[in-house]
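Support request, priority: normal
Reporter: lab tech (M.K.)
Component: structure prediction queue

Hi team, I submitted a job for Major facilitator superfamily (MFS) profile domain-containing protein from Didymodactylos carnosus yesterday, and the status page still shows it as pending. I've pasted the exact input below so you can check whether something in the sequence is tripping the parser. The sequence length should be 535 residues. Please let me know if I need to resubmit or if it's stuck on your end.
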Amino acid sequence: MNDEKADDYIDSIVKNILHVAPEQVGFLSHKNEEESMNETTKDINDIVRNFLNVQPMQIVPLLKDDNSARSSHCSREDLQKIDGFTLEQSAIFDESLAHSVELEFIIKQCGEFGRFQCTHFFLLTLLATCSGVASFYHVFGTAVPQHRCQLPQHLWANDQFQVHNETHKNYIDQWTPKDVSSNCFTYNASFENRSIVNCHKWLYDRTVYGYTFTEEHNLVCSNSTKRTLLAAAFSFGLMFVIITGGLADCFGRKKAITLVFCLFAIVSIITQIALQLRILKEKYQFILLFMNQIFTGVACTYFICAYVLIMELSSLKYSGLGACLFLVGNIVGEIIVTFLAWVIKDWLLLKWFITGYILLLSLSYVYFIPESPRWLYSQQNWSELESLLSRIAKTNGRKNETWLPLYPTVVTARKLFSSNTFADEQTTSCMKQSYPLLTTRDAIKRLYELHPTMFRVTSLAIVEFMSRAGTLIAPIIDKTNSSTNQRMLVYIYATATVIAAIFAFTLPETKGKPLPGSFDEIQGWKTKKLLQAFY
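Reply from support: The job had stalled in the queue. We restarted it manually and it finished. Here are the results:
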């Protein structure tokens, strides 16, 4: 094979791999037959690296004669085992390459951390504060302030929690038992045959928490179980995250977030008005607040969808930053509700502020929330993906010329890198050693997350579901925190923490690794040791 034919042959192979025009490749031109084969190999590696953003690796050199060329051709049988890889395993990593390299590279060309990402990182972080505000409300709304039994009317007609004078203090001491819980029991009205009885009315200290739902409905002592149910109701609502996660993977992150916030808006407005007008009896008000807590928990299932979305909007380099900012937003939400509770000190008014805050942020932003480009790719929704990439590039000040010529590579990647393509004799003569060039470095170094795109939110939702099962039973366990079993509770929580830490060691490392697109790609991780042979 002469040099001119070899140049055309290699040029056509790289053109097929990159799906670009020959003039964009722009190589090779050998001056004579004695030119170094190492220089030729370097030229090919440089071109492939520039387009696919991979590290240079050894590729088969050009062959000078027809006999050598024929001997280098790989048959279909030869392909079925290339350095320990089966054809099926090759297809898995080819699919991973098509997703993690081409799409990742195009996102970088559109701007991996430009104005588009900064804007939505900030807005999604603001949206994360809604979860912190909603989850931390019950800490103040159903807080238990200091309280004591009310004195009989004939002793002190207008009894209040604060001590007025020495006489008032003496009455409180006389009617408060010393050997039992002073918050729940008192003496009867008879001084001659005094006995300890249950309290029916309580007085509360409003200096710290203000007017709480606990005070309004006397959720103390024998009624404290109701307060535990309110705390568990929010966790129960969060367990619907497994449904929200499935919706996010089936219909998109944006649609799932929009759905839960619209549901929250409808239910919250109805319950808030009913609670404010006090048109229901006391026990029905409790049921109404209980249902409100459940639906608030359901609304907060948006958190897992938005958490995944903020990581999928940028490249691998900045996805970790987005995740950290999102979690910081949740903490900021807890700080916000703490400040509001300190200023307002009224459980119903505080709930109005929280509901308004969540509705204002969520409903004003959900329309502008972008869909995940990685989810659009996994669904093969090419038209919306191209539109989104154009929007990202335009917002980041990038021209279409920087990324649009590479977009067909994403669309045709699966066909281009299919096993039938590599089985063709005319293609495989120079592919046996270029195969690791196109798969090994990026397939290993960029395996970014444990869960694939198509099932990422569902997988994380299952984990969240199991964690919320723990938070659901935690208030019930704490309800038994009497002095006799306080030490046992410490042992239970400490043991659970140690077990969780042990299980954490079984997780694979995901730092600096690309997003898997399917479970097949995760299955391909089992051949990691074989892939490392190509380093």
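The beta strands are 147-149, 185-187, 196-198, 202-204. Residues 444 and 513 are 6 Å apart (CA to CA). Let us know if anything else looks off. Ticket resolved.
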